[in-house]
Structures are given as C-alpha cells and as structure tokens.
C-alpha cells in the first residue's frame, strides 16, 4: 500500500512540476518524505483574496489515493469554508458517506482518480466563491453574508500579511 | 443487530446535538469509521465457499417467506461465497466470480481480455489523466492476464483477499463502469434521476469507493466487458425469488445473490 501511494505521489509531483496550474506551487516539504506536502495558492483575481499567497499543508494517508489527504491553511485566513484552525472544509476532500457537512449530493467527492491538482484548483475556486451554507467558520459566513465590505477589509489585511507586508500603508 | 445499532445511534445523536460544529464533524467521522472497522473485523473481503444451506441460519425458522426462498435457492445452487458488506460488494463479487469461472472455463476469456485491454485507451479518450488511471489499470490487467497464465485458484483468492490489490481491482472496475456510462450517455441518461448529469452521476455515485451499486452499474459493467451475469433477488417482495439476466436473454456465466444492499457469489448445481 505504502509503495503504491509513494509511486502515485511521485507521479503527481512530476506532473505538477512539469505542468504547474496557474497560481499554484506544490510539492513535498522535503524529498525524503513524500507524504507531507506544502502548497502555495495565489488568491484569485477579482476576489477579496486577490494577490495573496497562501501557504497550506497537505498530509497524505499511507493508502493514498484510496483515501484523500488532509489539508490545512498555515497562513492566517478568514473564510466561511475554512475552520478557524485552518482545516479546509470542501467536498472533494471527503469520501461520499463521510458527510458531516451535508454537502450537496451533486458536489464532487473524493475518488481515487481525483488528484492533488484537482483539490488545489477546487480550493482556489472556493476562495473565489465561498459557500456560506456549509459554514466551517460561522463568523466568516455571517460577515460574508451581512457585511461584505467588512469581510473584504479583513481579507485585504490577510492578503498583505501573506505577502509579508505591513497591515496598512 | 441492525436494530441495536440504530438504537445506539439515537442515543449518540442526543449527545451530539450540543456539540460545536467541528467537534460534531469529528465525532460523526469517528463513529462512521468505527462502524467500518467493525464490519472489516467481522467479515473477510471474500469468504470461503459455503454450503448454500448455511443461509437458513441467518433467518429465524419462522421467517416463512425467507425460508421458502432459500429452499428454492437450494434447488438451483449448491454453494455461496460471501463478500464484505463495504459498498464494494458487487464489484468484488463480480471481479472474483468472473475470473474464478474463467479459470476452469476459458470460453468467455478472449472477449473479456480484449475489452479489458481496450478500456485504458477509452478512459484516455475521455481525457482522464493517465497518472491517475495507470496504476489501477496495470494492477487490473495483470490480474486478468494471470488467469491465462495459469494462476492457481488459491493465488486468485489471495489476490482478492489482500486489501490493497483487491481495492485497486475494484477501483478499476468502477472506472470501466463510469467510462461505459459516459460513452453511451444518450442511453444511460434516461436512468438517472435527481437532475444529475451523467458525468455528475459518475463522479458522485460510481467512481468513489464504498458506494453501493444499482442496476445501472451492472448494466454498464457487463456490457463494457461483454460479460453475462444472472442475479437472484431475495428480498421481502413476492413469494418467490426473482431472477434477472444482464444482458437480457444471455447465457449467464456468473451468478450473484442479491439481498437488499448486498451481493454474494452463487455456484449453480
């Protein structure tokens, strides 16, 4: 099992290095251990997170790709679908049945032919389009719904922080 | 046993009600995985061949309806081989049962092998990235080829009992099913309800592991591989068993027993 997981992770790493999707850099933290990755995700254009570079970690189980990885934001983030401790709440990171958040039945689920690239692209579109219905962060969901201006300000601070810039000019 | 379980679940739910969101999620996950572990610990992925009369012990003696159905089953079938109830049972029963049959009767092998070999290119034509598919295909085709190369019955059984190999095989059967559905989407779309597109159906109900199979999965898989399967249905409906052949009017190679939510392998007399 560990052998097949490793082989698959190496194939995905190669693929991501040769054809990196726009706005995403991902790879193992060190090449001695392919089961711990970091990924940088660029905040999508035209969204409150535009230009931010967010650091995330991915932890792969030994039976990957039978089971999905666990993903967490290391950079500070404030978003309806990301728990305050950074864990990402998105349907593609869950197998069907494993369904505490009551995702739509048509929402894309984890299957062994999904990939790290697919996950990261889904997270990117989640940054662009939060789903306030499945609120991992209730405060962020409320603010997103009721006070978008405040939400955008909060996001801007996080973007500057992610780039190592002072909070305000 | 099912009754006990739902009773326990009710109690659990009461206590879960007051939890904060993320703790609730984790509690539910833990509960689900412990149920999965319990199933895993109590049944092999694939059991031994059992005398068909064993089935009688699974129902109470005064369950007239089922006891009568089992008697009728006994007239046609001598043995049953059980699979683990993990949602993959149809695929596992099909995969092992079909290859096991072809160990002794090679008649269906050439067409099966040909369809199996061509399946990878069909997935590539549907734009599946090769790095996500090739490991599953390689495992699958090497097991299929081992039948021609004279693998022993015990070796084949061990392959399907070893979790890694067995699940890799199931993943690929799911992909063949998905591929067939997508390749003939005009036909299959008619069977999909709930307003899903066929691609959505494949991504959410066919490709992920541990999801149960329906008629549509069986139709697609048997037609993709040119396989003939008879399913004996034993449920609470009607006084007798009912049978369905996939495809219709074919001469079945493999026989499966269906009881609500579960498939096992049957051996004709």
TrEMBL record, chain A:
Q: Which CDD domains match?
A: UBCc_UBE2G2
Where the record annotates domain UBC core, the positions are 4-164
Active-site residue list: 89 (glycyl thioester intermediate)
Sorted alphabetically, the keyword list is:
ATP-binding, Nucleotide-binding, Transferase, Ubl conjugation pathway
Q: Name one Pfam family in it.
A: UQ_con
Q: So which domain of life are we looking at? A: Eukaryota
**Which protein family is named in the record?**
Belongs to the ubiquitin-conjugating enzyme family.
What is the designated name of this protein? UBC core domain-containing protein
Q: Which organism is it from?
A: Clavelina lepadiformis
From TrEMBL, chain B:
Alphabetic keyword roster = Hydrolase, Protease, Thiol protease, Ubl conjugation pathway
Q: Please indicate which superkingdom the organism of origin belongs to.
A: Eukaryota
Q: Which CDD domains match?
A: OTUB1
Q: Which InterPro entries match?
A: OTU_dom, Otubain, Papain-like_cys_pep_sf, Peptidase_C65_otubain, Peptidase_C65_otubain_sub1, Peptidase_C65_otubain_sub2
UniProt EC number: 3.4.19.12
Family label: Belongs to the peptidase C65 family.
The beginning of the lineage is: Eukaryota, Metazoa, Chordata, Tunicata, Ascidiacea
Q: Which residues form the signal peptide?
A: none
**Record's protein name:** Ubiquitin thioesterase
> Per the UniProt entry, what species is this protein from, by scientific name?
Clavelina lepadiformis
Task: List each copy of the OTU domain by range.
Answer: 78-269
Catalytic function, reaction form: Thiol-dependent hydrolysis of ester, thioester, amide, peptide and isopeptide bonds formed by the C-terminal Gly of ubiquitin (a 76-residue protein attached to proteins as an intracellular targeting signal)
A Pfam family recorded for this sequence: Peptidase_C65
């Amino acid at each position: 099992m560990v052998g097949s997981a490793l082989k698959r992770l190496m194939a995905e790493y190669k693929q991501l290095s040769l054809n990196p999707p726009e706005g995403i850099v991902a790879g193992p933290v060190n090449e001695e251990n392919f089961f711990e990755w970091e990924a940088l995700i660029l905040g999508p254009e035209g969204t409150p997170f535009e230009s931010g570079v967010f650091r995330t970690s991915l932890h792969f189980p030994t039976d990957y790709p039978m089971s999905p990885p666990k993903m967490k934001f290391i950079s500070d983030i404030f978003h309806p679908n990301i728990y305050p401790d950074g864990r990402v709440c998105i349907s593609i990171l869950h197998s069907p049945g494993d369904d505490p958040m009551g995702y739509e039945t048509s929402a894309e689920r984890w299957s062994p032919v999904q990939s790290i690239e697919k996950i990261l692209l889904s997270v990117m579109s989640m940054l662009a389009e939060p789903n306030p219905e499945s609120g991992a962060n209730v405060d962020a969901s409320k603010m997103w719904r009721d006070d978008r201006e405040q939400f955008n300000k909060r996001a801007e601070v996080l973007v500057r922080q992610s780039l190592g810039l002072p909070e305000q000019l | 046993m099912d009754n006990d379980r739902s009773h326990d679940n009710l109690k659990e739910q009461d206590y879960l009600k007051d939890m904060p969101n993320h703790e609730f999620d984790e509690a539910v996950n833990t509960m689900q995985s412990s149920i999965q572990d319990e199933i895993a610990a109590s049944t092999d992925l694939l059991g031994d061949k059992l005398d068909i009369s064993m089935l009688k012990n699974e129902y109470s003696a005064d369950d007239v309806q089922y006891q009568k159905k089992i008697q009728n089953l006994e007239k046609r079938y001598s043995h049953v081989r059980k699979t683990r109830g993990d949602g993959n049972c149809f695929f596992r029963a099909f995969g092992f049962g079909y290859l096991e049959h072809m160990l002794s009767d090679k008649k269906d092998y050439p067409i099966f092998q040909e369809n199996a070999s061509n399946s990878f290119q069909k997935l590539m034509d549907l734009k599946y990235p090769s790095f996500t598919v090739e490991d599953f295909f390689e495992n699958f085709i090497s097991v299929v080829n081992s039948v021609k190369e004279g693998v022993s019955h015990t070796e084949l059984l061990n392959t399907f009992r070893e979790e890694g190999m067995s699940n890799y095989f199931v993943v690929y059967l799911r992909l063949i099913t998905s591929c067939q559905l997508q390749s003939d989407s005009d036909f299959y779309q008619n069977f999909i309800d709930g307003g899903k597109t066929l691609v959505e159906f494949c991504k959410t109900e066919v490709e992920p592991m541990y999801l149960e199979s329906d008629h549509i999965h069986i139709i697609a898989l048997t037609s993709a591989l040119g396989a003939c399967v008879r399913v004996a249905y034993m449920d609470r409906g009607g006084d007798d068993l009912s049978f369905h052949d996939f495809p219709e009017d074919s001469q079945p190679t493999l026989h499966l027993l269906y009881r609500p939510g579960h498939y096992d392998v049957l051996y004709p007399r």
